Amino acid sequence: RELSEHEDALLGQVLDGRWIIDSKLGEGGMGSVYLGRQKSVNRKVAIKTLKPELVNSSEFVDRFFREAQMATTINHPNCVTILDFGQTQDNLLFLAMEYLAGEDLGDLIRETGALSETEACALLAQVAKALVEAHDKGIVHRDLKPDNIWVRTLSDGERQAKVLDFGIAKVMAGGSDSGQDLTQTGMTMGTPLYMAPEQIMGKEIDFRVDLYSLGCILHQLLTGVHPYDAPDRLGGLMKHIKGAPPVLPPTLTDGAEPSQDLVALHDALLRKKRQHRPDSTALVARVLSGISRGDSMDASAL
């Protein structure tokens, strides 16, 4: 795609005297992402910028800074590290973060297809641990999906997952993982394929919308398909609200039968009513970790 004049003009610029923009990596609904360098130490960084036409919208500007401010409060090895954020003299809003080699989980699924029980749970245990950190601070992601989970292979061969983009997260009242204070009327924001029923309907939401999204991703990792595939957006939304609960196949991609703990966790995460889902993100993380190790976790209690 040919770059616009504004995007072309950014290449080679130094933002705030510290961040050099080298090349464009991609773009999304809110803006673009560039490969850059921290001038003082010459290390690679990713630089996210807000679309120029949105800068005059106070809603989008507030949302951009909210992402930055919240993300800097989450310090966890399975969350992307935010290095800096600000606004340049010509009103360009930017966010500098650690550069991650690898690919997003959506690309991984498209390349490899379904994963084994152990592989899927090992990756999502890391995602759940990142959510524990966020939920403990009263932050709900609200748009958890494979494209917002980055996966890279470490030197020892292990896969590391990192959660990206808390851009539409909302700081809720309180910081408890119990859900008692972590509720507020939710805007219908997020990605339809991974949205919880209450989020779709604009009802009160809490941290359990993220658990539902995690359940959708778990199903997709294990089967290669989304639990509520539909030919159009409306059809998908209605399946989340009224569709029959998805079930795991009797055998997974590696020919193995899913463990009882895996089936129990999968079903618990995808319950239609939030009060029927697990009431602790930390417990979900422990169960995922245990399943990845082959431990018996008695997940039927979820």
How does the SSE layout of this entry go?
Blueprint: H1 5-10, E1 14-15, E2 19-27, E3 31-38, E4 43-50, H2 58-71, E5 82-87, E6 93-98, E7 103-104, H3 105-112, H4 117-136, E8 139-140, E9 149-153, E10 159-163, E11 170-171, E12 184-185, H5 197-200, E13 204-205, H6 208-223, H7 233-242, H8 260-269, H9 281-293
Antiparallel strand pairs: 1-2, 2-3, 3-4, 4-6, 5-6, 7-9, 8-11, 9-10, 12-13
Helix pairs in contact: 4-6, 4-9, 6-8
Describe this structure in words.
This protein is an alpha+beta fold. The chain is built from nine helices and 13 strands. Helix 4 (117-136) packs antiparallel against helix 6 (208-223), helix 4 (117-136) runs antiparallel to helix 9 (281-293) and helix 6 (208-223) crosses helix 8 (260-269). The longest helix has 20 residues, at 117-136. The radius of gyration is 20 Å and the shape is globular.
Assess the beta-strand content as a share of residues: 15-25%
- Unreliable stretches (pLDDT < 50, length at least 5) are 172-188
> H/E series, N to C?
HEEEEHEEEHHEEEEEHEHHHH
Helix percentage: 25-40%
Q: How many H/I helical runs?
A: 9
Largest beta sheet, briefly? Answer: 6 strands, antiparallel
> Which shape, going by the Cα principal axes?
globular
